[in-house]
Amino acid sequence: MELSEHIKTANVEDVTLRRPFHPALRGTLCVTSHHLLFSDRKDEASWQLLILLKNIDAIEKSVENLFGYPRAMGSSGTITIKCKDLLVLQLEIPGMEECLNIASSIEALSSLESVTEMYPFFYRPSHLTLNGPWGLSSTEQYYKQTERLWDRWRVSTVNSDYSVCPSYPSAVIVPREVDDDKLIRSARFRQGGRFPVLSYCHHRNGMVIMRSSQPLTGANKKRCKEDELLLQAVIDGSELGYIIDLRSAQQAQQARMTGGGFESKSFYSHWKRIHRHHERGKIVQESLIKLVEACSDPSHSVDRWLSKLENSKWLSHVHSALSTAGLVVECVERDGHSVLVHGSEGTDNTLLVSSLAQLILDPASRTVTGFLCLLEREWIQAGHPFQQRCAHSAYSHARLKQECPIFLLLLDCVWQVWRQFPLALEFSEALLLRLAQEVYASNYGTFLCNSEQERCAAGVKENTHCLFQSLLRPDIEEQYLNPLYEPTDLAIWPSVHPQSLQLWTGLFLRWTEYAQNMEEAREEVWSIVKEHHEQAGPDRTNNTLSTHCDTLTPFENLMDELTIL
Amino acid sequence: MEHIRMPKVENVRLVDRSSSRRIKVGTLYLTATHTIFVGKGSEDRCELWVLHSLVCNVVKHKASQSGYPLLIHCKNFQVMQFIISQESDCHNVYISLSRLSRPEKYEELYCFSFNPNVDKAEREHSWDFLDLKAEYSRMGLPNKLWHVTPINREYRVCDTYPADLFVPQSVTLPVIIGSSKFRSRGRFPTLSYYCKENHATICRSSQPLSGFSARCLEDEQMLQAIMKSNPGSRFMYVVDTRPKLNAMANRAAGKGYENEDNYCNIKFQFIGIENIHVMRNSQQKLIEVSALRSPSMGEFLMGLENSDWLRHIKSIMEAGIFISKAVAEEGVNVLVHCSDGWDRTAQVCSVASVLLDPYYRTLKGLMVLIEKDWVSFGHKFSHRCGHLDGEAKEVSPVIDQFLDCLWQLMEQFPCYFEYNEKFLINIHNHIYSCHYGNFICNSQKERKDLCIKEKTHSIWPHLWENKLDFMNPLFKPDQSQNQGLLRPRTAPYCFKYWRRLYNRFDRELHPRQSELDCLMTVKEETQQLEEDLALCEQKLAVLDKERAKTLYMQKGVLESKQALWSLPLDTSLANTPQDYIGGFIGGAPNLCLFGDKPKSSDADNSDQESGVADFSSHSSGEESLPSEDSVKDPDSDETGPNRA
């Protein structure tokens, strides 16, 4: 079926558009295969609103048919469009039939399942070409650039045809002394074949963060010699490594009943396991839904707001993610041990924790390029199932399948880190907001599909543009930069006290007036810094900024509360 | 000193609340004014000074293995835990501190012994730093509508009001007296804020003694006069900031609220801000939440909600918004009262003023506002802040709430306030510290009787001297939006927990890097650079002039020399330059001004005949212009010395 067959009414005149903080506008509404286009009919300053249909999370329609009047005269309908970037719009459409047609087109076209029908495959801006490498870096390039890996680590292409682990990229970094056969056996022992691979090697002490999925020990406490050897090779003679299991001890036990499990002390004697409970899947998705609901209800009193905020548990998820990331950093940076992170599948919370830990530890991941590379490596290539997780956002009434806003949670955590270290990140809140938008609906192919394998099969790299490349080329837009950026080599340990964590107003209250004053403040910060640049030149600005880094001290009491099994 | 049972205890441990593992060992000293802890050890030597007047309460905890814990809660939300090894020592410190922190007489307060190194004149001058008369004249008062009544000069009509009060011109003394008799504590309606653009005012008073049916003609005339003082409006609002139920209950005690039937053209409105007791309990809960050691997200948020604190802040804010809109948008006068008119009324009037008038969003403006609406109008600082040992039920965080409202506004409007939150926190600290005399006593009269101005120092100049610390780098005073009414949002999510105040001393809770400090430094540096630049440009300009002059001098030096020395040789020599410069000669008078500073070398290198050189050489002897100003002129320096 051609996409255009979904469109029964392509154009409607005299449509009224209502959106937050703007007077209602009348104009023409137009539905295309991928967009909803509204254009103001005033000639002199024609204003257009272009919405990707994929950005539409839910629509509500109400039609009024005044009884006894001819259809053309008395009937009209209202469509409320709720976008995945949390914007809510209203369209008043004259004519009931037109209204229903538009609504059904939106419904059909906003939930396309086939990747190659999606807009990134049709997006062809004049300033970008499809030739040339796609993405910022590859495993091989990363390895080549990271000299500290050369001695003990190697790139394995055991997964080059994606048969060992369908969700891994074709190349992964593993201990040099472990051969591909061992990897294959270890993969069979891990859910989804996600055997332990290197995620990060710390520049200070060479300690590493590994990630994997859960071991398939099952009820019979199966073991896998190769898996044990692989992990042994990771710590290479040092006496201890930590396994951060992102499930409670009880959940990990229960997982054995369904074939999963955990690394038992007796077989992995040099690894100490720490359990940290993290919510996943549906619970986190519902959490987002509740939070957005609370934010968009203006009527309630302060009391109900706080209980709704609490009840959504969103900030609790932020809290756990940051605390566990902090724990990982503590193991690596302070205690000098390597860490293996996994939950069950190793495609969600695992990536969240490992990438946050890197942001805290590694100054290189705090630059714009470094951060985007981190996302590419740890989320895109590492096989976070974006298509499944981001099929719907907070407004959809569709029955939840695999949706889960883990990536949004990551962005929120990064935002919290930025709030606490306003000078430490090279990028700004605007970049995080842009990513939050792009992950749900995008002109670019970056967030399409669930894994490298799928991307390969669909020809994403050949037929779409890469968001990260376009963000960086030729020069990153000023709005994505942090004017106060002052690099520090130190780990930036965030405070995880509830008093220190805040609601990300920039995202969740983005479409309220509240956010507008913040925009003004942001501009003022820029103008102050620019003025200074003009007077002093960039070198001196950095000197001034650096005097404002308080001593960065680790948070202290995490190790006290470890639950060690 | 007689209250100090134990001036010094050795081997006391100070426990860091954020981590029980960080403990400092040292010596605890009790002085007449401070508790001092001095840590042992050379590397982490620390000193902790806590004013007795800031101590809110002292609690002995159950003995633990390590000794006898003593917990000290301060009014600025600092909490300290000491562990003392001997029970008797612990008890002695406890008894001493309990007494020291609850002085019985004003004279015991720290402000009477605080003696910075300033002379008498300077101290007296510190009290003149703020002048309320100047503030009223800034508003445009007195004018033909409002004047100062002398009626309360001796505090006879109302002993909790200031001496100088503004009332409508048309109101006679008997009306004021009659009205004051019909109001609680004699607090008759008087002006708090005047908007000179539209003549609308905020007035304040206490509740009327109306009971169920009582009337007072003078009071009705008073309100009528206030209404009429605003030529543009045909009615006025009377805002009772209490919940309706509370106001009605007051009727049974012969107090109450205005009956719309008895007063011409008033619109009566309840706002529903809770009383001081509710607020005290609410803050108590809030403090408990803020002091939780490592709460979960849920515990914290539910605790915050159960405290109701933000709900109360919201209700005060909404009252302020209502009034500010009535004044700015409707141009209508508003009379605000609660019961006595010194708590909720002060909060609401001052919040409304901040919303209305950008001046109160500046450092000086906020000082004036507090001085006017709180200090002069008799907010009972001593009672509300518990300066002296007394009725615990009188204590209430009324002014904390005002500062909290301000902070909420600053969060919403980051560019519209000249001051930053440190300023608010500092004011908060000093309201409770009794370090300065400003917030001692309950009224102007009491302060006068106690000779506060003669015996203590004023906080305001002290804050003003440190104003660089309190500046908001994002402040945009010239922004057109900042000229008018602030319209804060009151959606629940706009009200936030003020971490910097309530967790002020929990360092690990706050961002490790400060955006504001950084911006402030950047801004200061920019300013410095600009000044440097301006200076350079100035020098350059001088230099340019010098150059221009040099040019001229090279050609017209004779002219100027003639003017200067009126040399007799003029005629013969004067001809030469005129041939060179032609029309430029019109510049001669100017050049004469500068003519006293010619470069010696200028003429030297000129292609003039020798006679000219003689003049120059002569002038170089008198030359005093520093040569660095002309370093860029390659001619000048090289040859100058040779010739000199």
UniProtKB/TrEMBL annotation, chain A:
Source taxon at top rank: Eukaryota
GO-annotated biological processes: negative regulation of autophagy; phosphatidylinositol dephosphorylation
PROSITE patterns hit by this protein: PPASE_MYOTUBULARIN
Domain Myotubularin phosphatase: from-to ranges: 133-508
GO molecular function terms noted in the UniProt entry: protein phosphatase binding
GO cellular component: cytoplasm
SUPFAM superfamilies: (Phosphotyrosine protein) phosphatases II, PH domain-like
Pfam families: Myotub-related, PH-GRAM_MTMR6-like
Similarity remark: Belongs to the protein-tyrosine phosphatase family. Non-receptor class myotubularin subfamily.
Protein name in UniProt: Myotubularin-related protein 9-like
Organism annotation: Sinocyclocheilus anshuiensis
TrEMBL record, chain B:
Coiled coil: 519-546
Ligand binding (substrate): N275, I276, C338, S339, D340, G341, W342, D343, R344
GO MF, one annotated term: phosphatidylinositol-3,5-bisphosphate phosphatase activity
Protein topology in the membrane: Peripheral membrane protein
The keyword Cytoplasm appears for this protein: yes
Keywords from the named record: Coiled coil, Cytoplasm, Hydrolase, Lipid metabolism
Ranges where the Myotubularin phosphatase domain occurs: 126-502
Places the protein is found: Cytoplasm; Endomembrane system
Keyword NADP in record: no
Domain Tyrosine specific protein phosphatases: 307-351
Cellular component, GO annotation: cytoplasm; endomembrane system
Low complexity: compositionally biased ranges: 616-628
Region (Disordered): 597-644
Domain of life: Eukaryota
GO aspect biological process, one term: phosphatidylinositol dephosphorylation
Catalytic site positions: C338
Pfam families tied to this protein: Myotub-related, PH-GRAM_MTMR6-like
Protein family according to the UniProt entry: Belongs to the protein-tyrosine phosphatase family. Non-receptor class myotubularin subfamily.
Protein name: Myotubularin-related protein 7-like
The organism of origin for this protein: Sinocyclocheilus anshuiensis
